[in-house]
Amino acid sequence: MEILKYIGSFFVLLGSIFLFLGALGIYRMPDVYNRLQAGTKSSTLGAMSMLLGIGFLQPDWMVKMIVIIIFIAVSNPLSSHALARGAYRAGLSLFQKEKIDAYEKDYKDMEDKEL
Amino acid sequence: MEMNIVLYIALGFIGLALILGILRFIKGPTAADRVVALDTMSVIVTATLALLAYIFQRYIYVDVSLVYAILGFIGVIVLARYLEKAL
Amino acid sequence: MQSKGLTISKFVYSWLLMFAVWYGFTTSTALPELITGVIVSLVVTLITAKAAQCCGLDILLPHRIFYMVKYIFVFIIALLKANFDIARRVLSPSLPINPGIVEFETKLNSDFAKMILANSITLTPGTITVDLVGNKYFIHWVDVKTEDSEEARQEIAGDFEKILLKIFN
What is the ipTM of this complex? Predict the structure, then answer.
């Protein structure tokens, strides 16, 4: 099956480009939240696309690849959500051009309640 | 076994991505930045292990990739809870 | 209190889900593996019965399946858009960002639906969920367009929320 090989190679290449863009994002962005933005989205799509490509290159492995794709699609946003909240509670300030922070007030209220 | 030239190019991009991730891991001014770099790198390594499984034609590496994905996720969650001072 | 029928339906649904996960991990149709899978997934379901029940068997009704497939398509298109958006921001030399945290309230009432919405928001253009308290989402937005909570809801979660309301209500 020649055509599957071409489709698979295309997806693998696309995935590696997105993974590279995600890593470039975490290198260039100014603060931890923006790094999470770039890192999570690009690495999720990149890894999903690359695994799908390998599934096309080797059709016997497709079921396993889909299991890993589903796992990455569920777990990656969860870990980035946990990291964003952890960073905020560790007291890291946001890089901002103008001050927009709706979370600050509610977070203070919650902290008062806990103490 | 004849090797697809596209896969070599893909491995090149992955290598560059890992270098950028490691640079951020070394530079990162705070612990949270380092964990972000670690999170992204663990996803990149998961995909790379599956790609290497195809290149070497070893099905067992796919299982390694799956286990790596699970362990990386758990590790990042634990580190995030630690940053949150909830641990 | 839940009725007995609902409890059984939730239990069977969790069992089916656990067995699907088992099949995904082994990808083998040999009879001994399948029997082991049925037993192991039953044990896991019994252990997690109190905590891990999201929905009953009625989630598998045809019109809900249709909306789930629709959701997956909407989600994949949003994911692609998000990646091109991030690629544009990362590759342009001046880094065009204007970040901030906005809040909005959701109309969803099931916890599972709220989790799915939070995960989807994280993977769609320029937004990640920072926290979820009750009905309030706190969103880090890379390019803040509006601070008003109703407009933010339309802008960030409009499409997803409509489909999720149809699946879970």
Answer: 0.87
